[in-house]
Amino acid sequence: MLLYVTIGSNDLFRSRLFYDAVLAELGYKRQRENIEEVGYAADGDIRCRLWVVTPFNRKAATIGNGSMVALEAPSRAAVDAFHRAGLGHGGTDEGLPGLRPFHADFYAAYLRDPDGNKISAVCERPE
Q: What pLDDT sits at residue 91?
């Protein structure tokens, strides 16, 4: 259903360092970048699915209360690694890795990126 998602940043260089680290743990990598945006995708994907951008209107990037991007993780270990990488690259904890009550195999971790955007990694496979 979703074609791509954008996340606003006030410091694209700082955000790039953060997202390079956390997304690598989920199997995604930086595919495109310029002075206004950085795009991420899985190998073999023909388009970037997650973009970190300077807002088009040139105003400050702000976070949305209740907004979050959840990214699919290939394993629970990848969720754990995502969370560690985020904390090590300027992110803040919004929920330690662990099972959640949404269903028996919903294993997730939650972070805020350096701009305050909330992101999550989720593995729904039994392990």
A: 98
How far apart are the two ends of the chain, measured CA to CA in Å?
27
What angle do helix axes 76-88 and 12-24 make, rounded to 10 degrees? Answer: 150
At 26 the pLDDT is 97
pLDDT of 99 higher than 80: yes
CA gap 84, 46 in Å, rounded: 29
Task: Spell out the SS3 assignment of the chain.
Answer: CCCCEEEECCCHHHHHHHHHHHHHCCCEEEEEECCCEEEEEECCCCCCCEEEECCCCCCCCCCCCCCCEEEECCCHHHHHHHHHHHHHCCCEEEEEEEECCCCCCCEEEEEECCCCCEEEEEECCCC
22 vs 91: CA distance, rounded Å: 10
- Which residues have CB under 8 Å from 62's CB, separation 6+? 8
Region 27-35: mean pLDDT is: 96
